[in-house]
Amino acid sequence: MAEDALHPALADRIDDTGIPRLLAIMAALRDPKTGCPWDIEQSFATIAPYTIEEAHEVADAITREAWDELPGELGDLLLQVVFHSQMAAEAGLFGFQDVVAAVSDKMVTRHPHIFGSESRDKSADQQVADWETIKAQERAGKAERGVLDGVALGLPGLTRALKLQNRAARVGFDWPDPDDVLAKLREECDELVEARDSGDQAHLTEEFGDLLFVMANLARHLKIDPEEALRAANAKFTRRFRSIEAALAAQGRRPEDSDLAEMDALWDQAKAAERQV
């Protein structure tokens, strides 16, 4: 892009396109005197939820195979990295190039079979095991001594449960097979009923959390990604409920004009129609 084609706020900051242009745009937005008031007011804490949201929107576009939307969604996610990097640079913590260097170094270190002397002739499972070994060595270098140290607090609950359980399983703290987990699941269901009947909401919440935690463990034993399974269930629910809405709309009605019995019957019809496809 020629310099005279740039926005005046960028003309004296950049002579290139791509990443340099994006970095300059972010710096301009955060300029304390001439930047955007909203962008200037933001902090790591206020931007973090947007970062998580944008990552989910990338995953959503992939799930829907909306390839025409994916470049924009990936761009939004990249902007989050640039936003955090700009705030860090302003605080004298680190800059965008430090982010790039960190991930580049990590990829080289974690792929000795590509960038080092190790043989590339090993299975994907062995590569995953080697990856985890290298990560454990990195945690040791960061003085993370506990088995569960370093599992990010900001992960979705089910994903974090899975990672915690995987860490514990590596040192032998695990049920030997899924039947043991199913037995624990039944136990937790009974405890949930007892908590409900007690009328203690805090206790009920605790027992519900325990039930979800065991469900995540069952998913791990069955080699199921619980987040992926729940996303699929959400999509199925959405699809079938829209079928209910469409069936009622054909009669000039809306769900609020119906009742549970009728909508449940329409749900069963949608379910049967899916099975015939």
Automatic annotation (TrEMBL):
Q: What is its EC number?
A: 3.6.1.8
Name one matching Pfam family: MazG
Keywords tagged on the record: Hydrolase
Task: Please give the biological process terms from Gene Ontology that the record holds.
Answer: dATP catabolic process; dGTP catabolic process; dTTP catabolic process; dUTP catabolic process; response to stress; TTP catabolic process; UTP catabolic process
* InterPro entries on file: MazG-like_dom, NTP-PPase_MazG-like_C, NTP-PPase_MazG-like_N, NTP_PyrPHydrolase_MazG
Q: Which CDD domains match?
A: NTP-PPase_MazG_Cterm (cd11529), NTP-PPase_MazG_Nterm (cd11528)
Q: Which domain of life is it from?
A: Bacteria
GO molecular function (one): ATP diphosphatase activity
**What general EC class does the enzyme of this chain belong to?**
hydrolase
Q: Which family does it belong to?
A: Belongs to the nucleoside triphosphate pyrophosphohydrolase family.
Provide the protein name.
Nucleoside triphosphate pyrophosphohydrolase
Q: Which organism is it from?
A: Paracoccus shanxieyensis
Name of the gene: mazG
